[in-house]
Amino acid sequence: MIGDGCNPDVIVINSLIDTLYKDGLSKEAWNMFRKMNEFKLVPTVVTYNTLLAGLRNDSRVQERFKLFESMKECGCPPNTKTFNIASMLYEMTEIGCFPDLFTYNTLIYGLVKVSRFFEAFWLFHRMRKTVNPDCITLYTLLPGAVKAGSIEDAFKVVEEHAISFAERVVSLGLRKNGSIMVLVIKLLSKKKKSLDAHKLFEKFTKFFGIRPTLEVYYHLINELLDIHLAELAWDVYKEMKNAGCAADSQYDVYTYNLLLDDLGNSGKVNELFEIYNEMLHRGIEPDKITHSILISGLVKSNKVEKALDLYYDLISGGFSPTPCTYGPLIDGFLKLKELDEAKSLFEEMIEYECKPHCAIYNILINGYGKAGDINTARDLFDIMVNEVIRLDLKSYAILVDCCCLMGKNCRLTGSFLKWFLRFYQKMY
């Protein structure tokens, strides 16, 4: 063919390389690859894929990676077939040859180009364990992520620049609903920057015209209450009402529970039930947490009898109580020194097959201890041991308080401490 002055084209060379490799003539296949220069032919992605497959079959890992990295230098971008990424990385590390920044950027570029975003982000997070990404890494990942709608993944990449990134995405019209605000607010709150989250909320709603979702309102109110900015949280709630958010989301009841809990903790019982009635008027179904908050709010306002009445009203309506329902009631009666009523509720709790946890026992032991009934407190500790209920730090603090309450009764204190040592050895 060559003797007749007919030079082969790249398709013929690729076919010859493939045939030689399949016949076990790898040396001849590589000689054919080198001759492409003589014929003034440029290797294609098919050429490289054939050679890479041959190197893989020969377990020549280092040569395989050198050839892979040379593709970009030769202006030949890899395609989907080239990126058998998992085996390439694992084989590379097995021989003590670790990928560098260039290797990762090349692999990520190829994956993004063929829309394999999951693998691209997996590789990015793997990369960060050993190699610091550069601007090329980010410029490769972020546009592809936004285009594919993987905004949450993009935020994980640019945590330190979340606000500017979110503003850029919104200003370009790439995301017009409120879901992007949820991501930023959660991220900022995680970094204890709830006020920054509120400022961003104001900017997005008033400047960019983004309509917040109920989930946005919930997270923002939650974070503002968490840093004791109740007034600002209630302003956001009023804005939520004025915006006319439809009552069709689980975040409705979540948000109302936050507000009810704030009022209950503040002792504002009248306002507590006003908001509760508003919740019912809007057709939002209360959950078990809602009812527990109402009971707890009444107890904290020294309205224990009313709390008990509410509890029985709920029970008669088919309500299934939880430990969070019983805890405030038992605590309230113990503080009033009505030990029999507290005991009756505890027994009723068992009857309803509502298993008491550590917090319930802490309330009981603390109450009986402060009432001077050390024997009952000790019996309750014994029940915890027998039921294999693990104590928390508060349990130990209550135990110390019980010892202190015994005062100068050294005999009783010593007996109690000996019992505690036996208990501790049994638990641990």
TrEMBL record:
Q: What is this protein called?
A: Pentatricopeptide repeat-containing protein
Q: Could you tell me which residues the PPR repeats occupy?
A: 9-43, 44-78, 100-130, 252-286, 287-321, 322-356, 357-391
Recorded family membership: Belongs to the PPR family. P subfamily.
One Pfam family linked to the record: PPR_2
SUPFAM superfamilies referenced in this protein's UniProt entry, alphabetically: HCP-like
Organism, scientific name: Penstemon smallii
Keywords assigned by UniProt, alphabetized: Repeat
- Establish whether keyword Ligase is in the entry: no
